[in-house]
Amino acid sequence: MTADPVLGILAEAKRLAQRYRALTGKPLGITGEVAEYEAARILGVELTPARQAGYDATEIRNGQTFRLQIKGRCVLEGSKPGQRMGSIDTKKEFDAVLLILLDGDFEATEIYEAPREAVIAALTAPGSKSRNERGALGVSKFKSIGVIRWQRAA
Known about the structure:
Blueprint: H1 5-24, H2 31-43, E1 46-47, E2 57-61, E3 64-74, E4 96-102, E5 108-115, H3 116-124, H4 129-132, H5 139-145, E6 147-151
Parallel strand pairs: 3-4
Antiparallel strand pairs: 1-2, 2-3, 4-5, 5-6
């Protein structure tokens, strides 16, 4: 997969995003794309064409196609707890959600997976407006309902 020209472009984009953050203190909005390619690179999932409704990648499990929605979150050193993931549209088709956590250099540190049923249950639980109306789970909540699929070596 190292010969993939998209990975070369992504490596350049990561460097630009790092420089942009250093100069402005703000993130450059590439976290989602980086997360998708990190999932493909690390887990070997097959990315779907752009704008596929409901899921971003597929994986063959026990001979069946498994549809994965991919979310990314850049967690900086000393960042506040309570960070949220991007919205999850439960009306779309998917079998599980992957959360790719990235460091300040946009390198994957951990990948979590939660099944559709657990995600929907967490999103529809009474309480939080951001959960119930916007479909946004907190990173810590997602970790608690998911399992770790990969972790960077220390």
